[in-house]
Automatic annotation (TrEMBL):
Top-level taxon: Eukaryota
Protein name: HIG1 domain-containing protein
Native source species: Multifurca ochricompacta
Stretches that traverse the bilayer: 12-29, 62-81, 87-107
Entry keywords, A to Z: Membrane, Transmembrane, Transmembrane helix
Length: 134
């Protein structure tokens, strides 16, 4: 429409379009992200403590495993330093680590394959297409 804009080289026309389109995408993405976080926190506040613990461990399962491993190793080191004859402390820390790995697997499985039919947030896995390949 404008003769000045029509006479611009294509690179400047593109720059003008990019300067409008990119910020609008960024603003709408930020707005959608804030809306998602607000809905997520509202759901978090409605959960009982047991669900919060399961949700937190499912989201941060590797951090929980690493933290429990570090605590187990530190506890074993402390027990061995107090009484050098105690060798079983290392075995307890290894057992704790294996227990935490198994618990994390159970939490993940419970969260992924929830049997509650009315749960919209965590749908039941009904994809059995793998059975056709056997």
């Amino acid at each position: 429409r404008w003769p000045y804009y029509r006479n611009l080289p294509p690179s400047l026309k593109t720059l003008g379009i990019v300067m409008v389109v990119i910020p609008s995408f960024i603003i709408s993405a930020e707005t959608a992200g804030r809306r998602f976080e607000q809905e997520d926190w509202q759901a978090w506040e409605k959960m009982p403590l047991s669900e919060k613990v399961i949700d937190f461990t499912a989201r941060h399962q590797y951090s929980v495993i690493a933290g429990c491993w570090a605590v187990g190793i530190a506890g074993a080191f402390g027990a061995i330093m107090r009484n050098p004859c105690v060798v079983q402390a290392r075995m307890w820390s290894q057992g704790l680590t294996i227990g935490v790995v198994i618990a994390a697997a159970a939490v993940t499985r419970t969260r992924m394959y929830r049997r509650d039919e009315g749960d919209v947030e965590r749908p039941v896995n009904r994809d059995h297409s793998w059975q056709e390949r056997i």
